[in-house]
Amino acid sequence: MPRKQIDPQHEGRVLALLQLKYSQRQIIGVQRNSTEKIKFSRQRPASTPSTISKVIQKIDVEDPPTQRSIARSCHISQSTVSRIIKSTNFVLRKKYKVQKLTSSNVKKRCQRARRLYRKLANHRYENFVTTDESWFYLNGTEGKRKVCYIKKNNPDYKRMIIQQDSSRPKGFMEWAGISSRGKTSIRFVAPGTKINSNYYIKHILKPFLSRDLPRLFPDGQEKKMIYHHDSAPSNVSKETIAFMNKTKINYVKPQEWMPKSPDASHMDYAVWGHLKQRLNKCKIETLDQLKKNCI
Q1: Domain spanning 103-294 has what CATH number?
Q2: pTM of the predicted model as reported, rounded to 2 decimal places
């Protein structure tokens, strides 16, 4: 560790007083009466190139460790790690979740966008009811950190993305929908239930038609409604499509729907995320408590 050093200006004054045969007590007395005191300063240890290289190697990755663990592994202080990060032009940024998009999804969206636009043009979007199902669970951290380091002058934005697919941990599923006229009721799916076309028709579509539709579209306006659901197997099965055709539901056909589109699926890309964000602020220990907070 470097020794404490005296400012060269004050050191010169002390040497000059010693040459004039001043005693140590007299020199200390002069210093006490002086407006400028002798200041002892400890030089900040310079970070060696090897230490800087080690820190950069640890942070310049997709899933970096904490500054505390970096300091412990490099045998330096946490403040030194923070100083190296700033001096090497790295900044800490939060990661964002985005939907994984395949080349097939991109192709389908390009082919179907115009057709869906014509279906919802001339204010027909005001009669659009979009529905979706989502899993809710107690723990979903998956061991991934929600922050990463990027360079200011050459940012790697791919690090800020956490890709997620359709897989979900165990919990319960719920169904809901929104429209410009209001929201539908929330319907929960019991854990372990097989979601087939019969279940979807009996427990989702029929309650929607008998309870939600008359409330959202009163006075005989039910025929104006344009219904949407995703392309889950139970939603696009022959039995489900036959039931919707029989009841004369005006719906978005599977070949008209743009897959994984934030602009077209508000439940999947906005409402569910907002609800889960709100639930994360609550102290929930059981699935029953989680279900109660969803309502």
Answers
A1: 3.30.420.10
A2: 0.58
